[in-house]
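Worked example 2:
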Amino acid sequence: MEVFKTEKIYDFMSKRFAFLGLSSFLIVASIVLLFTKGLNFGIDFVGGTIVQVKYEQTAPINQVRDILKDTKYSNAVITEFGSSDEIIIRITGSSSDLTNDISDEMHKILAETGTFDIRRVDMVGAKVGGELREKGLMALGLSLLVMLIYVSFRFEWRFAVASILALAHDVTIAMGAISLFQVEVNLDILAAILTLLGYSINDTIIVFDRIRENLQNTKDTKDTILANVINFSVSKTLSRTTLTSLTTLFVVATLLFFGGEIIYGFSFTLFVGIIIGTYSSIFVAATFLIQLNFSVEDFKIKESEKVKRQKEKEKLRAMFEQGTVW
């Protein structure tokens, strides 16, 4: 299926400063949001208790809040969960004894609010939450490091740096959106961020692979040819990138709007991330190559040396198989 005409070459690089300006604005806005509004960490990372309560009638949220204010759970946050007859009670901080289920205690405290059933009680200690937060950040950092090494090995260090900058761009803006809408940050969000990293780097590598291929085929060694090669490469992969992103986005949008509260954070992060990741793969990632002063001449020299070494290896292998080299 052809979304964009394959024979048409779009001049993306002539507008690269406009794209970089937009990205810079989004990144700065995201950082400001992260420092001002911050992240709404869930109990997975800060410790605490979640109680899911389902009523036979409309949940009396205001009455529940008033009752809990006069108990040791005065810091509890009560929100509607999916429907008007179901609520979530979030209690920050860990219980003094995590071996005891507080469902019996909640039944007694909320007895006068109506007929209800406690469907779920999740408890996480503050120490465990801190460890999860540290390991989550470690997983994110190691993912970026391994991707940097992989792209450096497969391509060239400037390709690697450009891809990591694009990933940092995607994650920062996604985290800014999470902060803006105060989506609860839990292990699902971390899984979505790691999924986003894999999705975004895949799109970027496809574009970079086409750029490298076209650089190898061109005989021009002038650095001015780089912008033309990037325009040609991105234009040729535009239909593939757009179709892949749209089909994935339709699935994620279905999860976002119809999947319910339990996977809302995961689907929201992926929804924003796919949009930003597609934008960065088309308009941002390759732009970083130019900003990093990628040299076409040096690239051609390195590639010719690789071809020369490969031919020497093949020659030695052939001589070995013929018995002329031992």
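Residues 187-217 form the longest helix (31 residues). The chain has a mean pLDDT of 84.
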